[in-house]
Amino acid sequence: MRKPYSVAAALVLCVSSSSALAAPSGHHGKHKKPAAGHHAPKPAHHLHPVHKAKVVAPTISWQQNVGVAFHIARLRHKLVMVDFYTTWCEYCKLLDHTTYTDPVVRSLARRFVTLKANPEKDVAADRLAKEVGVTGFPYILFVSPEGNVVSYISGYEPAPEFARYMRAALTYKGP
User: Fold this and answer.
1) Is the pTM above the cut of 0.85?
2) Rounded to an integer, what distance in angstroms lies between the CA atom of residue 30 and that of residue 8?
3) How far apart are CA 86 and CA 117, in angstroms?
4) How far apart are CA 168 and CA 155, in angstroms?
5) Closest CA to 119 of 141, 97, 100, 102
6) Coil, strand or helix at 151
7) Which of 5, 8, 12, 161 has its Cα between 20 and 30 A from that of 45?
């Protein structure tokens, strides 16, 4: 019986943002005395680089080969999360740009072997899609390493709902 894995820790990245003062037009590093009646500008200490710690989950590392994904899943005792997509599917693109960029979804995805499968371009992906009854895109399938369907999502889901499906799939204990 498979035991649930612990949630992977998010990476902490230091993101540096800085503002630079542009030199006035015609100023080439020479110091000039301010004109009469004008005061030299005070140093802008608030414009110095600021370092902020930001918690960012790593991007989802997608497998592209059905056989390799299931082989890795068996070795690591993980479920496979299969994203059936097509290049023309607008909701598939929305899923990529919104749901899969969410830090919670990205963190949960580390607990799966993730597979991007385009049935229109890959024979093995097409065979798997027909076997499980994919009728539209996107279609996300959660499968055990042995090939048992755990659950699925038919269509687009925003990140909070998608994460709920992922957590539910992770409770799978086997047949």
Assistant:
1) no
2) 53
3) 8
4) 17
5) 141
6) strand
7) 12
